[in-house]
Amino acid sequence: MKSLLIFFSSILLILTSCTQTENTDVLKERETALLTKERAFAEKELEFESLKAMRDSLELPTDTVIALKIPENIIGKWTGKMICTESNCSEHVIGDLRNDSWEFFDDQVRITNKSGSEKIYFAKVSDSEIKLTSENSSPSTTQSIITLQLTEENKGRIKGSREFTGNNCLSKFSVDLEKIKN
Q1: What domain of life does the UniProt record list for this protein's source (predicted)?
Q2: In terms of CB atoms within 10 Å, which of 4, 16, 64, 111 comes out highest?
Q3: Is-above-0.90 flag for pTM?
Q4: Residue 84: CB partners within 8 Å, gap ≥ 6?
């Protein structure tokens, strides 16, 4: 009887050890499949990020900024004449004429009016224009955006437009700049 009990115990032990190896093999197969899926997902995520970057680059406007600095031939002092062409602001009237002194630097412009007041504008340069934006120190101040057209045939002269917005009104000016000869 003892031998029979030992025989059945041995067989039971052998059978349970076989199931553990089978379970171990199944777990290894699942782990391998999971690693394969993780790698495939990581590749798809990289491809997605690449496609998203390509989409974002295609959605940029055609006049994207291609240079950070104002062209060398523009840097220096200019005289500026601005004429108001459109306005619903009380401080600007159509036909108003302003004569200012402009000084271009690498990435900004300083405009000085005839009373000596100065304002700094930050520049974004593209192949066809310079866009100047005033810094808003508080929400109550007016915002000014100046767009200057860059062309090869206008040596020493630049034309553009200027918009003042603020206090629920808008004023537009034509801008004509002439380089000061040293």
Answers
A1: Bacteria
A2: 111
A3: no
A4: 92, 93, 94, 95, 96, 97, 171, 172, 173
The CB-side HSE value for 92 (13 A sphere, CA atoms) comes to 23
E strand or H helix that includes residue 7:
helix 2-58
In whole angstroms, what is the distance from residue 175 CA to residue 74 CA? 15
Q: Which residues contact 85 (CB under 8 A, 6 or more apart)?
A: 94, 172, 173, 174
Q: What is the pLDDT along the chain (182 residues), one digit of tens a residue?
A: 677 777 777 776 666 655 667 778 888 898 999 889 988 888 888 888 888 877 877 765 554 444 467 888 888 899 999 999 999 988 888 999 999 999 988 888 899 988 888 888 888 888 788 888 876 554 556 677 888 887 766 678 888 898 888 778 889 999 999 998 86
